[in-house]
Automatic annotation (TrEMBL):
NCBIfam families: PRK08296.1-2, PRK08296.1-5. It holds the Pfam family PEP-utilizers. InterPro entries: PEP-util_enz_mobile_dom, PEP_Utilizing_Enz, Phosphohistidine_dom_sf. Residues 531-601 form the PEP-utilising enzyme mobile domain. This is PEP-utilizing enzyme.
Length: 607
């Protein structure tokens, strides 16, 4: 008999050795007795899309940013009819979220308000999006231009002659606060257009389901895809660099080198090599500012970017050079995807009564328009903005270590952001007076204990969800991005009861059926192990993973819905995908043969 509920949030004890883990996180993120009755009655799913790993205390800001912004835009600004926002809780170091449904009696009035407010954005979408890009780019530059260099022994004379009137210690305090508030502001803009974008796509989706009973999710999504968006530009730049290497005749030097450093040394000896190396350097900013997270980008400070790990993009260039020499086409099959899109669209449109053509065309046109933003915002926010934020946070951590306040730069990330602000004040005050500060002595034992607890938390295998599943999920982001639906949750429960059934249930993300060997990949650094024809099994993917899609046969992910990056990119590359399986990474093993059915959302073990 299949279970009807997941463990309750108050039924799971702390992992062995992790007692007291609650001290790592802010009080408002925790389950508590004061709201036990309310929280026990809700359904919570683990947010493995953004945070597949245990949260560092400092990284909690990433959750906070979208928690408040998503809710405010849904509930207070645009009045999305069926849904408010998403609640968050941290349990044993993992983030769980719960959709908040709008009261049934308010939906009609909210729908009227939503039509007016979202309608204004839909009508002016292109100009608002152009303005959006400019203001986000300005904030990215603002953060990148901040300085957290070690506090000087003496201020430069220019501080006096320039009548600056304040000190480097003050600027640390000011700029850290500015960096935090800028991150929050940017996340308001992140959701300024995102949820109403998903709502437009979902409206088209529902129109098609009503007009064409039995239509598959794949058919609807394929009518929208195949667009040229900036999100694919980083991978396109790697392909361009490979083609340029062959054009300049330096492909042999690139293939012969053991790594980027060796290649640069060899390339420096010829004019053509120097030209290619200069092209590489020019491409790094901004196209290598791509976060290398193992899931949704920007959610964890640890993984850095392509620019931090340049052998990742360089390895992709080498692979593309090899494939060019083998006579392969390395470009995405965009024209084929577009042709298929128009064929499917035409066939379904022809089934409609003439009176429905106008509504179909309008809804489809809007879905295609918002789709560009839905994909491209990831590049601006999750990659460029978070890369700037994590980079400056690490600069601050290195300076505190150089000054003897921290023992290791990683120590900073075991402090909550408010605690970092306190440490900065203590450091600035001590620097200003010349008297000893208390920061190192105070925080060192706390950080050591948090590190120990953090390690114990990492050993815990969290359930994919908590509590009783809802009758229906209506929040657009939950459905389209995470893939949390009644069917997917039922599949998780079935999988938990049938450990040896050999079948995983997920969301049909991209059409097609493929059999092949499993390659479990948890981080971008493991992508070099992927072989041609492998079935990629992962928590989720991000644009940092793009080069691997030209080698694999299919993708299976733990999280994601029909509009997740994994599903979208597989459709763009013409690869089958099953997303939102809940536990593929922990269940499947590298080397197993599986059948991936991207039409039904099933993954079957064949061994």
């Amino acid at each position: 008999m299949v279970a009807s509920t997941f463990p309750g949030p108050f039924d799971l004890p702390a992992p062995e050795g992790a007692e007291g883990w609650e001290s790592l996180y802010n009080w408002y993120h925790l389950f508590g007795e004061d709201r036990r009755k309310a929280d026990e009655g809700k359904f919570w799913f683990q947010d493995r899309l953004h945070h597949p790993y245990v949260l560092h205390p400092y990284d909690e800001i990433q959750c906070e940013c979208w928690w408040q912004a998503l809710g405010a835009m849904n509930t207070r600004v645009f009045a999305v009819p069926p849904a408010f926002g998403l609640e968050q809780r941290v349990l044993n170091g993992r983030l769980y979220v719960s959709p908040v449904a709008a009261p049934a009696e308010e939906i009609a009035a909210r729908a009227q308000e939503f039509g007016e407010r979202a309608g204004y954005y839909y009508e002016h979408w292109d100009e608002i999006y152009a303005e959006w890009k400019d203001k986000v780019a300005e904030r990215i530059k603002l953060v990148r231009d901040l300085s957290f260099a070690p506090l000087p022994e003496r201020e430069p004379l220019s501080t006096v002659t320039g009548h600056v009137g304040h000190s480097a210690g003050y600027r640390w305090e000011r700029d850290f606060s500015l960096m935090i508030t800028t991150m929050y502001e940017t996340y308001q803009w992140h959701f300024e257009m995102l949820n109403i974008g998903y709502a437009a796509y979902l409206t088209f989706f529902q129109f098609c389901q009503n007009a064409f009973p039995g239509i598959g999710d794949q058919s609807v999504s394929r009518m929208v895809g195949g667009l040229h968006v900036e999100l694919y530009r980083p991978d396109d730049e790697l392909k361009r660099l490979a083609k340029e290497a062959e054009r300049l005749g330096v492909g042999d030097a690139i293939l012969a080198a053991a790594g980027l450093d060796a290649a640069q040394a060899a390339l420096a000896t010829t004019e053509a090599g120097r030209a290619w190396a200069a092209d590489w350097e020019a491409t790094r900013d901004p196209w290598f500012h791509i976060n290398a997270d193992p899931g949704h980008p920007g959610g964890d400070h640890r993984f850095g970017t392509w620019d931090d790990h340049p052998d990742i993009p360089f390895g992709a260039v080498r692979t593309y050079v090899e494939r060019l020499r083998a006579g392969e086409v390395i470009d995405r099959p965009t024209e084929r995807v577009l042709a298929e899109r128009e064929r499917i669209t035409g066939e379904y449109r022809s089934l409609l009564n003439a009176g429905d053509h106008e509504a179909f065309d309008e809804l489809l046109g809007l879905a295609r328009k918002v789709f560009v933003y839905i994909e491209e915002h990831v590049l601006y926010i999750e990659h460029w903005m978070w890369a700037a934020f994590w980079g400056k946070s690490k600069e601050l951590a290195r300076s505190l270590t150089t000054m003897g306040i921290l023992d290791d730069p990683e120590d900073l990330f075991f402090l909550r952001r408010t605690e970092v602000a306190e440490l900065i004040f203590d450091t600035s005050a001590s620097w200003g007076t010349g008297a000893p500060g208390r920061g190192h002595a105070y925080w060192t034992p706390i950080i050591a204990e948090r590190r120990r607890i953090f390690t114990a938390l990492e050993a815990w295998e969290p359930p994919p969800a908590l509590g009783a599943p809802p009758e229906a999920v209506s929040e657009p982001l939950t459905v389209m991005l995470w893939g949390i639906t009644t069917d997917s949750v039922a599949g998780w429960l079935a999988d938990s009861e049938e450990e040896d059934s050999g079948v995983l249930h997920g969301v049909a993300g991209s059409p097609g059926v493929v059999e092949g060997p499993v390659r479990v990949v948890r981080t971008v650094t493991e992508l070099a192990e992927v072989q041609d024809g492998d079935v990629l099994v992962c928590p989720a993917t991000s644009p940092a993973w793009a080069p691997v899609f030209s080698r694999i046969a299919a993708t299976v992910s733990d999280v994601g819905g029909i509009m997740s990056h994994t599903a979208i990119v597989c459709r763009e590359y013409g690869l089958p995908a099953v997303v939102g399986t809940g536990r593929a990474v922990s269940t499947l093993r590298t080397g197993q043969r599986v059948r991936v059915d991207g039409d039904t959302g099933l993954v079957t073990v064949l061994d």
